[in-house]
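SEQUENCE-TO-STRUCTURE ENTRY
===========================

Subject: a protein chain together with a token-level encoding of how that chain folds.

Sequence line: the amino acid chain in single-letter code, read from start to end.

Question of interest: how does this chain fold, as expressed in backbone structure tokens?
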Amino acid sequence: MATRQHSRQNRTRATAAGVAAGALGLLAAGPIFALIAGSGTAYYAAKKDDGVASDVARAVGDVALTTRDKARDINRKHQVVRRTKDASKGALMKAKDMNARLRISERANATVLSVYEGAIRYNRDHRVLEKASYAVKRMFRFAWKNILNAESEKSPSITGHYQTAVY
């Protein structure tokens, strides 16, 4: 029985370590790093060896579990979750009421549509996208010619091959 309880505690600690490291990884560097940090920390926390990485990972799990317990105590004492839900519901109701009275979403949609239509008219009248595309094409041709000139000074036989590929 003691072994089963100890095993459950280790799994809980490893899970907490993985979640904590994943959350910090997400904040620090995004979802890919969060996945790597969380799974790596959970793995090392679950290992039975006494290496430094495993000790640190288990310590992260212990801190996460202590933080969870403190958060539960604070919520029991101050009803943070219930109060937050109530405040959110009240704010949502006020926002819906304000939107109904002032037609905010309707006006925002009309504004976005007007701006979009204006951009299409401006592009049609002034050919902005066509000119930008032409400018980018000229920029790449200029850069390619400079690369070819630099290469031809190094090796004249290469230039002919690249010029026929581009032009």
